[in-house]
Each structure stands twice: as structure tokens, then as C-alpha cells.
Amino acid sequence: MRLGWILTPALLLASSPLWAQDSLDFRVRDRFDVPAADAKSVAIAAAADRFLALLSEDQRKSLVYAFSDNAQRPKWSNLPVGMIQRNGLMRGELSDAQATALDSLLGEILSEAGMRNIALQMAADDAMGDGVGRIRYGRDLYYFAFVGQPSISQPWMLQFGGHHLALNVTVFGPDISFSPMLTGGQPLHLEYEGQNVYITQAETAAAQAFLDSLSDDQRAVAIIGDRPINVLLGPGAFGTLLAPEGIKAGDLSAQQKYLLLAVITARLGHINDDDFTAKMDTIRREIDDAYFAWWGPVGTLGSAYFRITAPSVVMEYSPQQMGGDPTDHAHNIYRDPQNDYGIAWIGSD
Q1: What is the pLDDT of residues 23-74, one digit of tens each?
Q2: Cα–Cα distance between 264 and 315 in angstroms, integer?
Q3: How far from chain centre, in Å, is Cα 336?
Q4: What is the pLDDT of residues 74-126, one digit of tens each?
Q5: The 3-state secondary structure of the chain, one letter per residue
Q6: In contact, 232 and 10? CB cutoff 8 Å
């Protein structure tokens, strides 16, 4: 596993282009000592089996890759169809019954908030129109694949994503890694089911509430720059470790730590309750070693880049200038630097 340190935000413009893909320079183990699956992992595997049972043989062949396939494992990006190759089955190629079964599987993996986020991001992609030339947008252009056969006794991975969305879910018995995970979207402001919606409202509001809780002296530590920056840990950045920047949570009050945890919850709350609870228990134990940093203006939701860096979670929110309104276009990354792609469980020593 490559370990690199990015020490200053100025390096990021060239360090992690979002058209790249991770190079997974680790070998997957030949054998696994998988703990007994819990009820949630059993339910996820059963939903995956129900989905697979509805597919034709040719569809299954295009969907399932060997668990050792480190070429398929990192196939995710913020880019739309026509700019990058994704493998697996395209959602628009599914029948109504197959699409319903896929949604049921995703509903086992994610929370209601996570499923709503997918629906909103797809609606945003529909709003982009038909695209130009080979570049295409829309809810039908999201891909699904398995790396390994769904199982309760062997590790496996499921991938779902497309433009501005990538879920990489590694299942290892009762334990699940959701890292790396890409969210965001364009446009972020849209009308959905008769209501005006801001897709990243919860997360940006939580970050602003945390920043508002800081004293002037604390803000001077947390705010690094007055212009937003790009993501550091996007596609192509596997194995990169970030030097912590900003204010350390160990120096915060109990109320400020609570508000910082609310920022993390707004993103990780997309995953199912069982795995969310386990992950947040870990994050609470390590919260004193977490850092929060901010680049950009203050007071306008979604106009600034912010990052949380902790031992088992790194989150970035990065507004984008493409489209003219940075509050209407964002690239957001979550990685677990200790267990990206489940490497702590599946990587060969």
C-alpha cells in the first residue's frame, strides 16, 4: 500500500485528478478467516441473491467479477458516461422487476437518508439534460457490479455509481467498509417531488453550525484559507495520508465536539443503522484526535471547502466552479485511511 503525505493544499491541484482511478498496489489474500455474519449482513446477502436470481446468465456474467480483481475494484469516478469507462450492468438495462430488486438491495445497505441521497443525485443528473456528443447524463446511466459472489462466509464487494456518485461496499462477515465513497452532485439545488431541495443542506448546515460555535481564536486555527480548494482524496489517491490541518477536537468543548460529530453524521448517516452505529462508536472513541479545517468564505452554505481528518475517517466537501455557482456543484469524498476497500481484512501482508 502506497503511503504518501500531502502537506499543503497547494499540492492538491495536481495530486488527485478526478478523472484518474485508484491504483490498488496490494494483493488480495488467498484465504480469509471471516467472522460469522450478523443479521444485517445476512439480509444484504439475501437481497443480493434475490437480485441475481432475476438476471439472465449473460447479465450475471457481465456483473460478477473475481474477488481478486484489483482492476475492477477501483472503477469509480465523479465523471459522467462518455468520459470514463465503468463496468458491470447499467441501471437503464434492467427490467422494472430487476430495478426494484436492485433498489431493495441498496435499501438494505443504506439508510433512508442514503436512499434519498441517491434519488436526489439521480434527479440532479436528469436535470443536466441529454449531454453533448459522447457525454451523457441521467438516472439510467449508473452501473452496478459485484466483486466476488455475495456470501455470508466469504468476503465480497458491491459497487454502485455513476456521475457524482460511487458506493464501494466491502462485506466481511458482520463488518462492512463503505470506503471510498463519493457523493455530491450538480445541480445541488433542484425541485424534487414538488419541493425545492438543496441536496447537501444537512452537511453544509452542520459544518456551518460547528464553525459558528468556535471563538475568534479557534476560528483563526480552523480557517486555513479564504478560497475553496479541490479534493485531495478523490480517485487516484488510494494510500495517500493527509497531514492533519485545522483545529484539533481534543481542544474543543463537549458541545463543540457534539457539533463536529453532527458534521460526520450528516455524511455517514447515509449507511444502514447497524453499520453506522458501529462506525460512529469508533469515531467517538477517537474524536479527540480529529481535526477540522476550512477553506473559503463563511456564511453561505456550500461555498467553502471543509475537511475532517481522524484516524479512521477523512471527509472532504469541495464546491466546484464549473457551472458558475460553487454552491450548486460539489465533489465530496469519504475514506477510511485504515480500511479503504476493506484492505485491513482482505489485503495480503
Answers
A1: 998 999 999 999 999 999 999 999 999 999 999 999 999 999 999 999 999 9
A2: 8
A3: 10
A4: 999 999 988 988 999 999 999 999 999 999 999 999 999 999 999 999 999 99
A5: CCCEEECCHHHHHHHCCCCCCCCCCCCECCCCCCCCCCHHHHHHHHHHHHHHHCCCHHHHHHHEECCCCCCCCCCCCCCCECCECCCCEEHHHCCHHHHHHHHHHHHHHECHHHHHHHHHHHHHHHHCCCCCCCCECCHHHCEEEEECCCCCCCCEEEEEEECCEEEEEEEECCEEECCCEEEEECCCEEEECCEEEECCHHHHHHHHHHHHCCCHHHHHHHEEECCCCCCCCCCCCCCEEECCCCEEHHHCCHHHHHHHHHHHHHHHCCECHHHHHHHHHHHHHCHHHCEEEEECCCCCCCCCEEEEEECCEEEEEEECCCCCCHHHCEEEEEECCCCHHHHHHHECC
A6: no
The answer to whether 124 and 289 have CB atoms below 8 angstroms apart is no
Peptide bond preceding 180 in cis form (omega within 30 of 0): yes
What is the grid cell recorded at 115? 436512499
Mean pLDDT of all residues belonging to the chain = 93
Residues 6+ apart with CB under 8 A from 182: 76, 77, 78, 161, 164, 165, 166, 234, 235, 331, 332, 333
Nearest-CA neighbor of 105 among 52, 35, 161, 165?
52
The Cα 182–Cα 100 span in angstroms is 23
**Residue 112's CB: how many other CB atoms inside 10 A?**
12
* pTM of the predicted model over 0.90: yes
On whether the CB atoms of residues 197 and 265 are closer than 8 A, the answer is no
Distance (Å, rounded) from C-alpha 15 to C-alpha 234? Answer: 9
Is 8 buried (19+), middle (13-18) or exposed (0-12) by CB count in 10 A? exposed
